[in-house]
Design goal:
The complex is a heterodimer of chains A (about 300) and B (about 325). Chain A folds into two domains: about 35 residues; about 230 residues, MetI-like (MetI-like fold, Orthogonal Bundle), CATH 1.10.3720.10. Helix content of chain A is about 75%, strand content about 0%. Chain A is built from 13 helices and no strands. The two termini of chain A are about 15 Å apart. Chain B has a domain of about 200 residues: MetI-like fold, CATH 1.10.3720.10. The longest helix of chain B has about 30 residues. With about 325 residues, chain B is an all-alpha fold. Chain B is about 70% helix and about 0% strand. Classes of the chains: A mainly alpha (about 300), B mainly alpha (about 325). At the A-B interface, helix 2, helix 4, helix 5, helix 6 and helix 8 of A face helix 1, helix 6, helix 7, helix 8 and helix 9 of B.
Chain lengths: ~300, ~325
Amino acid sequence: MMTTLSPQSRAATRGWSDITIRNLFVIPTVAFLIIFNVFPLLYSLGFSFTDFRASSKAAVNFVGLKNYADILADPVIWRSFSTTLWYVIVSVSGQFVVGFGLALLLNRPIPGKGLLTTLLLLPMMLSPVVVGLFWKLIYDPSWGILNYALGLGKTAWLTDANLALYAVAITDIWMWSPFVMLLSLAGLSAVPKHLYEAASIDRASKLYTFFRVTLPLVAPILLIAVIFRTMEAFKTFDIAFVMTGQPQAELISSRLYKMAFAQWQTGPASALAYIVLIMVLCITNIYVKYLNKAKER
Amino acid sequence: MAVVSSRSGRLGNRIAIAVVLVITVIFLSPIYWITTTAFKPLVQATSVPPSVLFEPQITPFVKLFTKRAQLTAPVAPEIYEAAPWWEKLVLDGGERLARDGNGEVVFSAYPDRFINSLIIAITSTILAVSMGTITAYGFSRFRVKGEADLLFFILSTRMLPPIVVAIPMFLMYRAVGLNDTHVGLIILYTAFNVSFAVWLMKGFMDEIPKEYEEAALVDGYTRMQAFFKIVLPEAATGIAATAVFCFITAWNEYAFALILTNRRAQTAPPFIPSQIGTGLQDWTVIAAGTVLFLIPVAIFTFLLRNHLLRGMSFGAIRK
């Protein structure tokens, strides 16, 4: 642990004491976060047990656990959850394959590698909603470049109930594969060179070297990338919301948005928000555990 | 992988490079496409087959900043001649610029939204980075009770789904009159970014040897003086990188802006898609708005390139 000068020393007695400074530096931020994150959540926890509608002035009734029971019995919400689950699987595995694949290809001396990597990283820095918007242009059934380039005729990517979710996932893969690539590259470059030399002296096959040397050493960082992307994909709102209104492609965040701000069912929406929140906090917990592990290395 | 000596290895290397180049081109093509669309004549933006070759023009940008109406009759030649070059571009496209009572050109909502985005992103970045920097210093140099739990709490606030937080925030802001205000959004973006700033800055602070300050303390500085005169200059790179990340996050944010603003304080992300669906869509104008909006992020990505890994992993992976 970091220790500071002992309290008796001359230096520590000048000006404010270290303890004052520590409190001054740490407490306001923590308090700020409690006021603007924890307090609102407690507020909505209260609403989740009521039939409150933010759009009406009608009396608010306490309904106990009814909102939670209704949600768990609502097939539309179950469909949203299963859509979201499928979306997470498709999108994160796509990002993993493309991102890790790209990292393997890039993990060698390439002229202009820095520029190339930066260009490849550009998509993940862009605004998801704007990305969703311009992919709409690309996906357009009649004059979009995608159908033309792939010779797909008039495929209606975003209005076809079966395709819409995949169309969104493809956009998400385009946007976030660079993230997996970035982390994978860091993992790959940290593998000690002498391990490869030893493997080649032992005449180990490339495949064997990959599975026995590369993969185990890169695995921890890949895991961080995958957990983070899983959490983010689970929360996806902007891209999907702006790209498609297909009910079959409705993710849980979009459902939540509609319940809260289109139908104004504030009480039930707060209950659903809590269910989502608990799921996200579980993933966050796992994520932070692995992050801290990576830090210790 | 790293050891490439054999002939087959060299060939493999060349193939890998070729594949990477092809993938890079594919990856960048959507960005290329939206960028070129912003410079296309209207008919070529949605032509079949898509036009790759076209004469670039800046009409879409003129349209982006102005309000227009369809021309019902051809303009009189003398009016056309008197119009400035940028107005001619619009007239050529069969539209006229809307003018107010004094004959001044009426601006569209885009510049206002763009300026809102700038004000909100810059202010919240300054606040989040300032708070993040001092808090990170606190965590880095002093013993804080329950440090691990506090840091987890701080990061977890960043992970909350925006819609979940937006429901109570909307009600609370409505109660205190902060809906659709710059201040409201600035506070939220600050809260959202401060957790990130604490984590990232803690990594940078940990890297500054604490002997530097201790030497300063021995030389007669107070701890506050040491912090401002020794630590902050040392942390400048980290502060800059953190600031750019916070700016990009606030600049790109959509969900809070969609729910908590609608006119006065609306930022560009909810505004740009809202232009769609009102009658005939002019994709060149939407593309122009998109391109202008993406330019700052593209520039910052290049400036940040050596810190992307660190930022994206909340400071955990440093390379």
